Predict the structure.
Amino acid sequence: MSLNPALLAVRFLLELIAIASFGVLGWRAFDSPWRYLLVVVLPVAAALLWATFAVPDDPSRGGGAPVPVPGPVRLGIEFAVLFGGAAALWGAALPRMALISAAVLVGYHLVAYDRIRWLLTGRSIEA
């Protein structure tokens, strides 16, 4: 699978936005003292999930996989974190931001269809 640097940069930004969105949910949807805890715990949990489970030899991650998982499992994790960030914005009473986030994610995944195919089948478009 060849990696498009622009798509990698976009995915990185989408990861950061999703993780931050969980913090927004923790702050806006909960009262004190929970908000102070959840504004930290929710993004850290999402980031740990994202960073821990990976496909071995994933070229977008430098090949490292702390806990190796098959491609379909990794795709599920990516969807859970990225689209979970959009859902978190919805839960934080920011529906416009949630819909924009979801639309951008759908667009990204349509453009990054080769990565999705690779995760689902293990074969790239060039293979």
The chain is about 70% helix and 5% strand.
